[in-house]
Design goal:
Elements: E1 8-9, H1 14-27, H2 40-57, E2 60-61, E3 64-65, E4 71-72, E5 90-91, H3 94-103, H4 110-125, E6 128-137, E7 145-159, E8 161-162, E9 171-172, E10 178-179, H5 187-190, E11 196-197, H6 203-214
Antiparallel strand pairs: 1-4, 2-3, 5-8, 6-7, 7-11, 9-10
Helix pairs in contact: 1-2, 3-4
């Protein structure tokens, strides 16, 4: 963490969680009703600043807005490196929390609405079909198992990282070198990180539909 603590860190929903606290303070909810009232305008200002930086860091690829990296440079706002295996990328995981945070905005501007639409469009375009992962026993793994990708017809999933240029999923071990498949990285990273997941599934269906209805779209 010390290597990138200065960055704009969406990794593991760090900023999203802070934004949720600011929101709850401003709304006097979720056991934050007793927070001194003088902090409410500060929480509102902080939440709005967070929304602004989320809009500014949304990545543009070939002229179209997409999603976000897990971390961005605090000066240039460009996608940035975190740990050796967390390269600049389009994040199929952290981008979900960011999109949900944007959907919290009351009376959203045209810019916020477009950012949400563009993110949902990207999630739909980044779907991976007919594959899943499973743990298999392996005594050489750090926890006694390996993780493998296998065929599961009819399923949909997403990768954790997508290449900024090609848009294809990639995987990376502690050597910091991109690989095209999960099998190519060392077992410690294969079995010790969430490389695939269904993070956007609910967002792009029921949540997005409800958000559009709420906002007359």
């Amino acid at each position: 963490m010390s290597l990138y603590r200065h960055q704009i860190t969406y990794n593991d929903d760090a900023i999203v969680k802070v934004m949720n606290v600011m929101w709850d303070i401003s709304k006097k909810q979720k056991d934050l009703e007793q927070v001194n009232a003088k902090y409410i305008p500060l929480a509102v200002a902080s939440f709005n600043k967070g929304i602004d930086i989320m809009l500014k860091t949304q990545i543009t690829v070939n002229g179209k807005k997409t999603v976000w990296c897990a971390q961005h440079d605090e000066i240039t706002l460009q996608p940035a490196l975190a740990r050796a295996y967390e390269l600049p990328s389009l994040s199929g995981s952290e981008s979900v929390g960011i999109t949900r945070t944007l959907m919290m905005v009351e009376n959203p501007s045209a810019e916020v609405k477009q950012a949400i639409k563009d993110a949902v469009d990207w999630f739909n375009s980044a779907k991976l079909f007919d594959i899943s992962t499973k743990q298999v026993p392996d005594v050489t793994g750090p926890n006694g198992y390996d993780v493998v990708v296998y065929s599961t017809p009819g399923t949909t999933t997403w990768a954790r990282f997508y290449d900024l240029t090609t848009g294809l999923p990639f995987f990376c071990g502690r050597d910091g070198i991109k690989k095209a498949t999960l099998a190519e990285i060392e077992i410690e990273r294969r079995a010790g990180y969430a490389w695939y997941g269904n993070w956007p599934a609910g967002l792009i269906t029921t949540e997005y539909s409800a958000w559009k209805t709420k906002n007359g779209l």
